[in-house]
Amino acid sequence: MIITSNKINVAASGNDIVAKFIRKIRLEHSMTGSELAKLLKISQQQISRYERGINKMSLGQVLELLIVLDIPLGKFYKYLNAELHQRYPDSELISFDSDLGIHHAHPSDGHSYGKVW
């Protein structure tokens, strides 16, 4: 999902955030790049490229990573949300409710337009 507004385009930041998330998750699981690569059936060099942001993971690849490592999807969304808010503190791009449903907020009118799913 690319989130844009008239003030910012966060697609590039989103790619950086995914790269950081991959490395964070790998380290949390005390895995080497080679070990993660073996689980995902890709090369260690590809893991390195993902972590450095040289290559970008598709949503399907991110979901595969989450499934293989038994990571709840909500953990990824919380991380994404926190990173976006850290990078863009004055923007209310995404907010989460208690059941982790995503709501789009439009800063210009402050109105929530409901869940994406």
What is the topology?
Blueprint: H1 11-28, H2 33-40, H3 44-52, H4 59-68, H5 73-87, E1 94-96, E2 102-105, E3 112-115
Helix pairs in contact: 1-3, 1-5, 2-3
Task: Give a verbal description of the structure.
This protein is mainly alpha-helical and 117 residues long. The protein contains five helices and three strands; from the N terminus they run αααααβββ. It has helices at 11-28, 33-40, 44-52, 59-68, 73-87, and strands at 94-96, 102-105, 112-115. Strand 2 and strand 3 form a beta hairpin. Helix 1 (11-28) packs across helix 3 and helix 2 (33-40) packs across helix 3. The chain is globular, with a radius of gyration of 15 Å. It starts with 10 loop residues before the first helix and ends with a strand.
